[in-house]
Amino acid sequence: MMLQAAGRRLTGYVLLYISWFLKSCLFLYLPVYHIKVTGGSSGIGKCIAIECYKQGAFITLVARNEERLLQAKKEIEKHCINDKQVVLCISVDVSQDYSQVENVIKQAQEKLGPVDMLVNCAGMSISGKFEDLEVSTFEKLMSINYLGSVYPSRAVITTMKERRVGRIVFLASQAGQVGLFGFTAYSSSKFAIKGLAEALQMEVKPYNVYVTVAYPPDTDTPGFAEENKTKPLETRLISETTSICTPEQVAKQIVKDAIQGNFNSSVGSDGYMLSSLTCGMSPVTSITEGLQQVVTMGLFRMISLFYLGSFDNIIRRCMIERAKYGTADKTA
Fold first, then answer.
1. Cα–Cα distance between 259 and 294 in angstroms, integer?
2. Which CATH number do you get for residue 47?
3. pLDDT tens per residue across span 238-272
4. What is the CA radius of gyration of the chain?
5. Domain of 61?
6. CB atoms within 10 A of CB 189
7. φ, ψ for residue 115, nearest 5 deg
8. Are 37 and 255 in contact (CB under 8 A)?
9. DSSP bridge pairs for 35
10. Measuring CA to CA, how many Å separate 104 from each of 55, 213, 296?
11. Where is the chain membrane-spanning (predicted)?
């Protein structure tokens, strides 16, 4: 009797896994046609647009700088696979006026049809010690990095739910998984993105709409180059403990995860470790992914303590050097 009960339970688990897996497969190959990319004039956003264009998508690029938008449009159009594809450019600040963002998205949908996938890449980074940053810096980063993702998402979500199809991608950062020295303003704005993504996925999953939150590492983009100009020494030394990715590499991974409906999108072994370690109550795509996170979390926690210890040593070393030579805090 006990063996029979165990057998039935095992069969039930297997059937549950198979049904979950089959349900996952239903959205693995969903055709995505109209892609809207905010912050799409450069960096990761532009590379995501190129990656989607290579797969035959119609693209709407949104950014503030019209000149850079038109230049990005020319670059993207070089990768067309058929003569029906279109790249639409719209110059607007997605973080300032929701009604304006809503009108812009309506215009894009009138020309290219409903948005199948929204990629929120608009954002910026400003680093500095907490007491050295102006209060306006915190307000600015929350506006651009957080509200700049809320407004476009709010404008497309109703149509996606009505059509019962859609993808929404949020570009966070590894600094949105763990807080780092010098990133008190930036990290908090990116942590907010994670909370938004987790809550929104709960609301929209019954409507076959899937949310992906990407955690790219340091990436060789114009924004990263600008960030390095004012980055504190400690922050720069911590940053140098990891390698720099190309925007093309990051874009390919994000597009792949978004089309497959994966909630987390990370790059490399460090990215996988951070995503598993900081997963919390984040949604999982499959039972296998959930089990992997549970099994590896203990090991990754020990590794993370090693990393944190090395970061502490970097900060102490900087403090000792400055005290030794009587130098003031300097940026790199």
1. 25
2. 3.40.50.720
3. 788 777 899 999 999 999 999 999 999 999 877 77
4. 22
5. 29-268
6. 28
7. -75, 120
8. no
9. 59, 117
10. 24, 23, 44
11. 12-32
